[in-house]
Design a protein that fits this description.
109 residues, mainly alpha, two-stranded antiparallel ribbon
């Protein structure tokens, strides 16, 4: 989506050209739509007390709140927050590695 500046719908149509059975679950679809709405970057740099600070964009913050409520997470619990952050980083890293492998596979063909 980001590399080609595609909307969720356009990216899904493109993906279905080669993988007809793709059917993202509703939660993942919502996350991708929010990501596109945030122009593929969920962090918004800002300034507080003269110092640069990174904050989540409003749409992304709303999605996080919805997700946490849906999963029954207490976002104020430091252990749960640390665990979720670790899992999210692992998932993001796995996704990057998978994309890099796919890119190299296409480049070799």
């Amino acid at each position: 989506m980001r590399n080609c500046s595609l909307s969720y719908s356009a990216a899904l149509l493109l993906a279905r050209e080669s993988h007809h059975l793709i059917s993202p679950n509703p939660g993942f679809e919502l996350q991708l739509r929010i990501w596109g709405h945030c122009n593929y970057d969920v962090i918004e740099p800002s300034r507080k007390a003269g110092k640069p600070v990174s904050e989540g964009k409003a749409a992304y913050k709303a999605w996080e709140k919805y997700r946490d409520e849906l999963l029954g997470r207490n976002v104020n619990d430091p252990v749960a927050k640390a665990h979720f952050s670790m899992v999210a980083k692992l998932a993001a890293n796995f996704g990057k590695q998978k994309a890099i492998r796919a890119y190299h596979d296409v480049a070799e063909d």
